[in-house]
Design goal:
The chain is α/β, with parallel strands linked by helices and about 400 residues long. The protein contains 14 helices and 14 strands. It folds into two domains: about 140 residues, Aspartate Aminotransferase, domain 1 (Alpha-Beta Complex); about 230 residues, Aspartate Aminotransferase, domain 2 (3-Layer(aba) Sandwich), CATH 3.40.640. Helices cover about 40% and strands about 15% of the residues.
Length: about 400
């Protein structure tokens, strides 16, 4: 049995309040980003209108080695465009892993399709190929994979089970990651990225949709600009009602600077993970993000999964860290547990079937992983975790 975490007394709490709070996520911004944005603010008008957006798209596609990249307001819009381009709609089922942010599944409902929630693999925390196989029906029209916290699923097995169904890869959390020699975001028919302020590469808000399929890229270009094609742009003619899903020049300029520094950003993420890995290596019953052969994990969020013997729910862990002025996040709760999806018939089956996602979410948290973390701050986080997990002898 494990001793419940110690709670600071009144004096200790006062001292802790005086300490700088350790953030769970946040960017690394330099003078380069400031310069790029200032240049765009001065120049991206008239004949140069939108120039930074086009440059960011080209540079991003070149980095990944894809034929097409479109900068959009956020990853949610990227996913929405991907599903629209694949012509998903009412009567269709789209399989999505339980463990992801709601934004992965919400666009399924935007197009009128039905989300089907699959379990995750206990090692990768990503879509389980076995669960995917259980979820397939004659109505299944697409599969969404999620590269959770910078890891990736067994894509060879996923593709084998999907058997030709289109795959949308939600790579929001894994820019720069690789499976073999292929970058995250290039492992399916279409890939999507987030540049939210918490992400490794940020534009404050923003996203990107990428693909090598010309049929999808042509459709996405039309759908993201109110139904206009580039050829129709000057004449303001539209053949269908669509959406306004375009990134601004100032965001794109910021993203270009971040992309120029991507190796530096990724190295810092790996350094942060290695600080945690070294300090927590000998702590029993604590599993961090797993490394595996052939995978370049970006460790977007350092995640701690506690052994059930600790009997310490995720929410209680977060409360205890909070008392020590340390911000954390929960392991994403299963989608089928969210009230937002309560009206779907697929929820009840998912809650019974997807035991791994429910189990891991109940006893796991994301530790501080902000790009500006120092080694001393990681030391402090680990000290707090060890205090929380301090064992006690069982009374006889």
């Amino acid at each position: 049995m494990i001793e419940p975490a110690s709670v600071p007394d009144v004096e200790e709490r006062a001292a802790l309040r005086e300490q700088d709070r350790i953030p769970v996520a946040g960017p690394w911004v330099t003078d380069l980003e400031v310069r790029y944005v200032a240049e765009a603010a001065a120049n991206d008008w008239y004949t140069h209108a939108g120039e930074s957006v086009g440059l960011f798209e080209t540079e991003f596609a070149d980095y990944l080695g894809t034929d097409f990249a479109a900068a959009v307001p956020h990853c949610t819009s990227a996913l929405h465009l991907a599903m629209l381009a694949l012509d998903l709609g009412p009567g269709d089922e789209v399989i999505v892993p339980e463990s992801t942010w709601v934004a992965t599944a919400a666009p399924i409902t935007y197009v009128g399709a039905t989300p089907v929630f699959a379990d995750i693999d206990a090692g990768t925390w990503c879509l389980s190929p076995d669960s995917l196989a259980e979820c397939l029906t004659r109505r299944t029209r697409a599969v969404v994979t999620v590269d959770l916290y910078g890891g990736m699923p067994d894509m060879e097995a996923v593709r084998s089970v999907a058997d030709g169904l289109p795959i949308i890869e939600d790579a929001a959390q894994s820019i720069g990651g690789k499976l073999g020699d292929r970058f995250a975001g290039t492992l399916g028919d279409v890939g999507t990225f987030s540049f939210h302020g918490t992400k490794t590469l940020t534009t404050g808000e923003g996203g990107m949709v990428v693909t090598d399929r010309s049929d999808l890229s042509e459709r996405i270009l039309r759908l993201r600009d109110h139904g206009r094609t580039p050829a129709d742009h000057r004449f303001f003619t539209t053949e269908e009602l669509a959406f306004k899903y375009k990134m601004s020049s100032l965001q794109a300029a910021f993203g270009r600077a971040q992309l120029a520094r991507i190796d530096e950003l990724l190295d810092k993420k790996r350094q942060i993970f290695e600080w945690y890995e070294e300090r927590l290596a000998d702590v029993p019953g604590v599993q961090l993000n797993r490394r595996r052969d052939g995978l370049t994990n970006t460790f977007w969020m350092v995640t701690a999964v506690l052994d059930p013997a600790y009997r310490l729910p995720a929410r209680r862990m977060m409360e205890l860290f909070d008392l020590h002025s340390v911000d954390t996040r929960p392991f994403l709760p299963p989608l089928s547990s969210l009230p937002a999806f309560a009206g779907y018939d697929t929820v009840a089956t998912a809650a019974r079937r997807n035991k791994t996602a429910y189990d891991i979410a109940a006893r796991s948290i994301n530790l501080p992983s902000a790009l500006m973390l120092t080694e001393a701050q990681v030391d402090r986080v680990c000290d707090v975790l060890l205090t929380i997990l301090r064992p006690r002898k069982e009374t006889s």
